[in-house]
Structures are given as C-alpha cells and as structure tokens.
Amino acid sequence: xxxxxxxVVGGGQLARMMQESANALGIHLRVxxxxxxxxxxxxxxxxxxGQASDTQAIAExxxxxxxxxxxxEHVPNEFLETLSIPVRPAPKALLYAQNKLxxxxxxDALGAPNxxxxxxxxxxELADFAQKVGLPLILKTPTGGYDGKGVLKxxxxxxxxxxxxxxxxxxxLLAEEAVKFxxxxxxLLARRPSGQVRCWPVAETIQQDGVCxxxxxxAPNLSDKVADRACELGKKIASKLxxxxxxxxxxxxxxxxxxxxxxxNELAMRPHNSGHWTIxxxxxxxxxxxxxxxxxxxxxxxxxxxxxAAMVNLLGSDFSEPREAYPQALAADPAAKVHYYGKGVxxxxxxxxxxxxxxxxxxxxxxxxxxxxILQGKEAE
Length: 381
Fold this sequence. Notes:
The protein is of the alpha+beta class and 381 residues long. 30% of the residues lie in helices and 25% in strands. The chain is globular, with a radius of gyration of 21 Å. It starts with a strand and ends in a 5-residue tail after the last helix. Homodimer.
C-alpha cells in the first residue's frame, strides 16, 4: 500500500509541525510553499514553490492526492470547488473563516452568541452604530487579517477616517462592540467527514499587541459547566457548518462562575496557535488529529497527559540567531520543549514556542516564559 498523499496550501510553521505527525503516521505531505526558505520547505521534501493565490499551482499539488487541506485561509475559495479531490474543510465552510462579516451573519443564523456588530462603509453608519453600543469600538477588515493585523480599536470616530476613506466601491468594514471580557478562551476540536468530533480541554489565551503570547490549558478557574458549554458551542458550529479537520473557536468570557457568558470572537479551520500545547500536553496533538480528520480516520484521544500545560510564543528576539542561546535555554529547564520554526528574525515575529507540561498551568507558563526570555536575549525572570 502506498502512502496516502495529503496536499497542503501554505508553507509556514503549521504545515512544518504537521510534517512531524505525517512522519509518525507514514503520510506523504505535499506542501505548496511560498519559497524554498519557507519554514515547511526546510523539513518537507515534496514542497513545490507557488503562491496560495495561484490556482494552477494548487491544481498541480492536488494531482494524485487523497485530500487537499490548508494551513491558512487565504486561498481562492471559488476555484477550490472545481477540484476533483476532497477539499477539507470544504469551500462552503472555509468561507466563514475567510470572511468575518459572513462569519458574524452565520453565527446569528445559528443562534451562536455574537458581540453586537454592524457592517459599515461610511462615517455616518459607524456613528449610528457607536450611538447604539458606545465607544470604544473594534473595526476589522472582513478578509485578510491575522495576528492583530486588520484590527483597529477606536476611541473616537475620527480614528476610523483613514480606514473608511481607503474603502473601494462596494467594500465595507466590520464594526463590533468592544467586549469587556474576563478571559479569552479557545475551543479546539476536530471533526471528520463521517461526523465524529473530539474536543480538547478549553484553553485560555493571553494576547500581546494583538498576537497570542501565552496559552494555558485547561483554562484556569473556569467552571466545568462553562467549559462544557464552550465545547458544545464549538461542536454545534462544526456540525452546522459541516467543518472537517481542526476547528478553533476563539471566544470571550464575560462574568464569573457558572453564570459567565460566552461570545464568539473568530473562527479558524486549521491547526491553530492556541493548540500547540497539544503536541506534548495531550495524548493526540492537533496536527495528528487534523491529518486523521481530513483523511476520515478515527480520531485520537484528546485527554491531557499530565493535568495541565502552558505554551509561550517566542515573539521576536534580540539575537540574530536565537539558537545561539540553546546551551543556556535548554539547561534552564530540561523538561521544557522548544519548537523553533526556522524563520528570519524580526520584531514581534513568531519564531517558535516553548511548552511545559505539569500539574499547574500557571507554573508551567512561568517556566516556559523563563526559557523564552533566554531565547529572546532577555534576563530570565
């Protein structure tokens, strides 16, 4: 029996980490990478170069593959409908991770809890919405944003003028109320085409300048009832939208204890930064699970292996080559696991992450942060 071929669009760190799980399962990855220096190209032999917008390149990597999947959402959706192999998640589902306005509309249609929102294209429309919900507001570009890009918090209408004036004919922005949340949560689950779904423990995410910095799993001080509600909400979204593969539902938690409310923030239909802790912290990692799901194989156990875990992102470094600090960093905590993505250093860029597994997620985070600080050239806390 020949190895099943999974074609992947996108050559960043997510596909790079998917390769490790593919190795274990004997799955052949064929990844469309942006350049031969891309993170995945460094570890995946079958990595033709091409842009995610290049339909011919996508068609070529799909030839002979059992399935096509993605490590980011920035792909030509309508073209995907023309391919002769399964596309997972399907274009009709992927749309809701690509377009935030469409996502808000379908969440309303499903009865999922949304923050108050409006589609705006003029200062007058924005002013009307601001009068209803108050300032500050969050503005988002409907497509193309990630890691804090395409998101603007405004405290006055004047702060939105540049974005509004840049809109073309027929273009608009998503305006949302600025939710006063207690925590940001991430519900990570996987669903296979036959309908089987498995959910990992709900995690808490902590942001730095709009980019995920720390993930604590399970989310500390989250009641079992709220965690169950969050997971059921994620399962409902996956089922109703017919999502296949890994789905991450980012949520706001408002309030305390069992009475806390949940609001959907954003969706991602692929392995997600909030799930990197699962590599060491869960019986089945999100990357293995994604491959299982898109190939419609039985899903793995999502239980934690040691009670809790924490992941801290390596966001930029004072070193031109952070691996120079390995002798000190690896000695600082022999139980810490370093994942380096092979990217060039620039301020704030996701260069890697460090995970620590143990009985207490906050203590795990402290230990992981110590190692990250060393890799960044900062004095360890």
